[in-house]
Amino acid sequence: MENKLEAKNVSVFYGEFQALNNINMKFKENAVTALIGPSGCGKSTYLRLFNRMNDYVDSFRMEGEILVDGNDIYNKDVLVDELRKGIGMVFQKPNPFPKSIFENVAYGLKIQGIKNKAVLKNRVRKALQQAALWDEVKNDLDKSALELSGGQQQRVCIARALAVEPSIILMDEPTSALDPIATAKVEELIHELKKDYTIIIVTHNMQQASRISDYTAFFYMGDLIEYNKTDIIFTNPEHERTQNYITGRFG
Amino acid sequence: MKKEKIIEGLLKFSALVTILTTVGILYVLLSESISFFSEVSIWEFITDKEWTPLFVNKHFGIMPLVMGTLLTTFIAVAVALPIGITIAIYLSEYAPKKFKKIVKPLLEILAAVPTVVYGFFALMVVTPFLQSFIPGMSGFNSLSAGIVMGIMIIPYVSSLSEDALSAVPKSLRNASYGMGATRLQTAFKVMVPAASSGIIVSVILAFSRAIGETMIVAIAAGQQPRLTANPLVPVETITAYIVQVSLGDVAHGTLEYKTIFAAGITLFIFTFILNNISFYIRKKFKEQYD
Question: Does the ipTM exceed 0.85?
Answer without folding.
Answer: yes
